[in-house]
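Thread: quick sanity check before group meeting

JM: Hey all, I'm pulling together slides for Thursday and realized we never actually wrote out the predicted structure for the chain we discussed last week. Dropping the sequence here so it's in one place. If anyone has concerns about the input, flag it before I start.
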Amino acid sequence: MNIRHIVISLLVGITVLSCTGVDYGVASAPEGSVLDIEFDFSAAVNKPDGIPENTRVLMSELVSDTRYIFDAQTGFSISKENEFPVNSGEYFILSLSSKQDDYLLSGFDSFDDPENPTAISALRLEVKAMPKEQVQEKYGFCFKGIANQFLTLPPVSPCYISIDSRVPVYYRELGEQITLNLKPVELSATLNFSVNIDLESGVAVDSVFAGISGVPYRMKLMEGSVEKDNLAVSFFKMTPDNGSYTSSGKYSGSVDTWGLFSADYGDYITGPGIFWLAVVASCDGKSRIINVGLNIKEQIDEAKLMEAANDGQTWKLAVRNATFPIQNTIYISKEMIFSGGSDGVEGWIPVEDEEHPIVIEM
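JM (edit): ok, ran it. Output follows.
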């Protein structure tokens, strides 16, 4: 079991204790009552070491406006300076671990505002977009057409979330300790991609980068669900399975996302569900970027990544890992590098297609 604890009590100062496999953040409570929040990461695929940094626990009593936000590292309230007990009652409880540099939190600052608290349904988590200039700096090229359609997302750190909608917290006697068991899991799924690249003798690959469009970037935390209207593209690097950039073979890469939506139709060459590829190939000192894109609607639909959330308006991940082997093979010849011409992949977007300006430039 991968279990961590914080103990919320709210009168005296904090003491931090530890033992093998368990971390405790301890603070005292009025009349000796103690609320022990236990984090069980056994259901997480990538289990964290201890309680992740910037973990918050939000509690909202169902029949009143009573709200609490706790810092899981200390057990202290974030905004009310421990001037109140956790009242008996039935609660909606949300725990969230998210690195501040990668994400934006909406509604948290006023969640427990006694005058104008944020509605639980309004709490949002959003991946910070990557500016176009950072895309070019990081990857050495610019997906101009994609940037015009979508936000671009960088690789981000893992998030963990637990949602419990009706949790009883009732103290029956003084000094009683109540233990709540939260079971956070990753917010994301790992999407694995592979593609075969066939090289003419003398042609070498310098680098391969990929992007997948149709990635949600804003999450409704009450449901742990995403909106289909807020989509982006995520970039990632692909590397040769055999370790050689000078011979033909399969290239693979993966990216963690909150889901993936396909295009409405399989013949669309823009919009969600398009796998983008940029291969920088060289021969005799000259290099060229081979830019292609492929609608993978059929594979995305077969993966059954998403399912409808309880609100009937948003979507949740149904699986945590999916693999998309691209069936088309890219053939790169010397002629393509020196004189342009076909990209060698049927159904993929050529660089010269100005009607659909999904173009990569150095």
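AS: nice. The CA atoms of residues 278 and 333 lie 15 Å apart. Helices lie at 132-139, 144-149, 297-303, 334-339.
JM: adding both to the slides.
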